[in-house]
Design a protein that fits this description.
Layout lengths: L1 H26 L13 H30 L6 H22 L5 H29 L5 H28 L9 H9 L4 E11 L5 E9 L5 H14 L2 E10 L1
Parallel strand pairs: 2-3
Antiparallel strand pairs: 1-2
Helix pairs in contact: 1-2, 1-4, 1-5, 2-5, 3-4, 4-5
């Protein structure tokens, strides 16, 4: 069951990596009349679909593992050993090729692959134990552990993806501190309206209305706001002004 759990996981990895690759290519397109903010959220869509798919598979694996716990049978330790070694080799090669990735998807996939390597290492250790001791309950127990680990981590990924779709303020930006920095700009007396959301977990969009005393410092205020935005990966800024 441990091998089945990880093989099902690897199958979903293949689908998710292929899906992520396709959606990543789409997300790199320029904005259009239909998608005026661009296609960046297509990569987040892929992450959401993959997370839901893997969580469902993991629940099925947990159910099958519980059935096996109630009626344990001796697994093929030699077969587990061979498959685990192959899994470590191929997952290691994939992780090495992605270790220099810079995009959100590449980093997410790399972390996923590293988790896979740890899982195959666990199966390798179990297969060695089973070669010398008859403890068949280890196989379904590890399957449950792997499935629970996947559900926990992918639930977090799904939650973060849904928060982006729901336009939650980016977690990497402290709203209060950011507003304080804007209010500290010379000539700005108040913030009348403020909206900040993320496009894809990396790049963000900002719209705000600032209350100013006069238009003598208008250009410097715009420059300072854009500078703050650049420091926080805010790629699109719209500023309106109200006068006292």
């Amino acid at each position: 069951m441990a091998v089945l759990a990880d093989c099902l996981h690897d199958l979903t990895d293949t689908v998710s990596i292929g899906l992520s690759w396709g959606l990543e290519r789409i997300s790199g397109r320029d904005s259009s009349d239909k998608y005026t903010y661009g296609y960046q959220r297509f990569s987040i869509l892929g992450a959401s679909i993959t997370s839901i798919f893997v969580i469902i598979i993991s629940v099925i694996v947990i159910y099958e593992s519980i059935v096996r716990l109630l009626s344990p049978s001796a697994p093929n330790a030699e077969g587990m050993l061979v498959v685990a070694i192959l899994g470590i080799i191929f997952k290691g090669m994939s992780a090495y090729k992605l270790h220099s990735g810079i995009t959100f998807n590449e980093k997410a996939i790399l972390l996923h692959l590293l988790g896979d390597i740890f899982e195959w290492v666990a199966i390798l250790i179990i297969s060695l134990i089973l070669l010398f001791w008859n403890v068949p309950f280890l196989d379904p127990l590890v399957s449950i552990a792997i499935a629970l680990w996947l559900i926990y981590n992918l639930s977090k990924t799904l939650k973060e993806s849904l928060e982006i779709f729901l336009q939650k303020t980016p977690s990497l930006i402290n709203n209060t501190e950011f507003k304080d920095k804007i209010l500290a700009i010379d000539g700005v007396s108040a913030i009348n309206d403020f909206h900040l959301w993320s496009l894809d977990g990396i790049d963000s969009v900002l719209t705000l209305k600032l209350e100013i005393d006069n238009d003598e410092q208008l250009d410097s205020i715009i420059e300072d706001v854009n500078s703050l935005a650049l420091d926080n990966n805010i790629v699109d800024v719209t500023v309106e002004f109200n006068y006292n």
